[in-house]
Amino acid sequence: MNKVRQFLSTYRNAIITWLVIAALVQIGFSLSIDRDVIAFVVVLVGIFGQAFAALIAWIGLVPIVGPIVAQVLSLPFIWILNGVGYLVSIVAIKRGYSKEVLNYRVITVILLIGITLGYILGKLI
């Protein structure tokens, strides 16, 4: 019980932030607020509440695989690849290539998952 109490005291602010994020999303959807506004508020609350850093730390707490996944998710290459994908998606959607953008984003997500799994397997083997 002592470890649970220590975990809760260490990550109290992050847990509260994630509960606030969940409540804001639920309230936003129930009031039919635009999804872009909800996403913007979630990002702001997550950044200022350090919720995303805590999420990576929680992933890192999982034995054996957790630290490797946390390390992969913090690689700058992953962030750059995902960011470029979003920028290209915005331009392509404005030009009318919405179906192609969906295919492109699926391929990008599969690539990122493949890189992550490959890195994990490479470290474990």
Describe it.
This protein has two domains: 1-61; 63-125, no CATH class. It is built from seven helices and no strands. Helix content is 86%, strand content 0%. The model has no long low-confidence stretch (mean pLDDT 84). Helix 5 (65-73) packs across helix 7 (98-124) and helix 6 (76-94) packs antiparallel against helix 7 (98-124). With 125 residues, it is mostly helical.
Compact description:
The protein is 86% helix and 0% strand. The protein has 125 residues and is mainly α. The chain folds into 2 domains: 1-61; 63-125, no CATH class.
Topology, pairings included?
Blueprint: H1 2-10, H2 12-30, H3 35-48, H4 51-60, H5 65-73, H6 76-94, H7 98-124
Order of helices and strands: HHHHHHH
Number of E-type strands:
0
What integer is the average pLDDT?
84
Helix content: over 70%
Poorly predicted runs: none
Oligomeric grouping of the chains: single chain
Termini separation (Å)? 35 Å
Radius of gyration: 18 Å
Number of domains: 2
Number of helices: 7
Strand content: under 5%
Task: Give the structural class.
Answer: mainly alpha
Shape: flat
